[in-house]
């Protein structure tokens, strides 16, 4: 098996910890350890013996996760090292060469790369800017056949910050049922909604649904590397052995901290923090777009600390991002990393002053291009 370079991750991993201003991240500013725990919890963690935990996740953590998804119990949950591993395990355990997979674009391109590496027959449908980042239902219907095995989506979406409409959700569910296909729903941005209304999960809408999520984006805790799969029990039992060949288990410290995070009061407090950040900071970014004289058109995101504006400049998106990187020390993500040139993904989850200074530098670069 050969894999293609994951262009976005390669760019981020090379530069995000080097640049002065990093607007490439799609989550909110990370939470400090001291903000998560009280003195008793800290003492408990300091006394934790650093052994292995159960490879599918401790019963205590799986119980916390199951409380988020009505109708589940701990046997519907598999704990993973981040939602990226959760997505990897879904693909690895379910795709055989020639399987037909329908993938939403634009998207985090992990599944795009994995399906091609595993030899799937990959078909794609695009979310449409003029439909408020929803799919064209006729296009979607034309792609799904009796051979379709998986329909893979991300909702809320990365990079657009869009949410599927109820009509689009129902279309996907109905097409999956008709084809007897699985819906794989990456829901890692659920909880980061600007209006405070939680994006409905695909879990519980249809018998063949597997959901991935984690603590990175909406919770501001990517360093814990805690993710999970929610699926029917027999599906979890099938997937768990693949986990034995990857990371084995979460670290014991991450498990303990994740249980603290997912206690009901703490979880709500963290999500309230996230929603406050994305509301406040998108207002700053939206105001900045309006100051740029019509150079940007942005459908306002509904969730996540990301916006995906189209720009009106005669320059390729990767070339533009390289200019910003090398001349202004600012990192953003080019649209062609999502198969959509002349768009940019702006991450706006950082602290307010940091965001403002970074945007000043982006504006400088734009003026230089125009002049």
Q: Could you explain how this protein is built, in words?
A:
The chain is of the alpha/beta class and about 375 residues long. The chain folds into 2 domains: about 130 residues, Aspartate Aminotransferase, domain 1 (Alpha-Beta Complex), CATH 3.90.1150.10; about 210 residues, Type I PLP-dependent aspartate aminotransferase-like (Major domain) (Aspartate Aminotransferase, domain 2, 3-Layer(aba) Sandwich), CATH 3.40.640. About 40% of the residues lie in helices and about 15% in strands. The protein has 13 helices and 15 strands. The N and C termini lie far apart (about 50 Å). The mean pLDDT is about 95.
Query: Count of DSSP helices?
Result: 13
CATH fold group of the largest domain: Aspartate Aminotransferase, domain 2
CATH superfamily of the largest domain: Type I PLP-dependent aspartate aminotransferase-like (Major domain)
Care to count the β-strands?
Answer: 15
What CATH first level of the largest domain would be assigned?
Answer: Alpha Beta
CATH architecture level-2 label of the largest domain: 3-Layer(aba) Sandwich
Mean pLDDT: 97
Residues in helix, %: 40-55%
Following the backbone from N to C, one meets helices and strands in this order, namely HEHHHEHEHEEHEHEEEHHHEEEHEEEH
Specify Rg, calculated over alpha carbons.
Answer: 20 Å
Structural class: alpha/beta
How many structural units, i.e. domains?
A: 2
Features:
Aspartate Aminotransferase, domain 2, 371 residues, 3-stranded antiparallel β-sheet, globular, 40% helix, alpha/beta, Aspartate Aminotransferase, domain 1
């Amino acid at each position: 098996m050969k894999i293609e370079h994951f262009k976005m991750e390669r760019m981020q991993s090379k530069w995000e910890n080097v640049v002065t201003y990093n607007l490439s991240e799609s989550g909110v500013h990370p939470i400090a350890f001291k903000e998560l725990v009280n003195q008793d919890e800290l003492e408990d963690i300091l006394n934790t013996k650093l052994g292995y935990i159960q490879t599918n996740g401790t019963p205590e953590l799986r119980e916390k996760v199951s409380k988020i998804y009505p109708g589940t119990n701990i046997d519907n949950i598999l704990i993973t090292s981040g939602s990226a591993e959760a997505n990897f395990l879904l693909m690895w355990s379910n795709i055989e060469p020639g399987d037909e997979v329908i993938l939403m674009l634009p998207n985090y391109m992990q599944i795009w790369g994995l399906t091609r590496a595993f030899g799937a027959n990959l078909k794609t449908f695009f979310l449409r800017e003029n439909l408020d980042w929803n799919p064209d239902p006729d296009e979607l219907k034309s792609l799904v056949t009796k051979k379709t095995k998986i329909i893979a989506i991300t909702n809320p979406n990365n990079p657009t910050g869009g949410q599927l409409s109820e009509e689009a959700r129902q279309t996907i569910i109905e097409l999956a049922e008709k084809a007897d296909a699985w819906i794989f729903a990456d829901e890692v941005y659920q909880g980061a909604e600007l209006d405070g209304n939680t994006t409905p999960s695909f879990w519980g809408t249809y018998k063949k649904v597997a959901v991935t999520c984690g603590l990175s984006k909406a919770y501001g805790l990517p360093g814990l590397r805690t993710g999970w799969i929610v699926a029917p029990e027999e599906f979890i039992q099938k997937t768990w052995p693949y986990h034995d060949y990857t990371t084995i288990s979460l670290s014991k410290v991450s498990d303990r901290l994740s249980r603290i995070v997912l206690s009901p009061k703490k979880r709500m407090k963290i999500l309230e923090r996230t929603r406050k950040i994305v509301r406040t900071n998108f207002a700053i970014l939206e105001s900045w777009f309006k100051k740029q004289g019509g150079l940007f058109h942005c459908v306002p995101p509904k969730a996540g600390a990301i916006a995906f504006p189209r720009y009106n400049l005669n320059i390729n998106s990767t070339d533009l991002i390289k200019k910003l990187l090398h001349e202004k020390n600012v990192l953003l993500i080019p649209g062609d990393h999502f198969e959509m040139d002349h768009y940019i993904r702006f991450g706006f989850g950082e602290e307010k002053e940091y965001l403002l200074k970074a945007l000043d530098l982006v504006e400088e670069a734009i003026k230089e291009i125009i002049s």
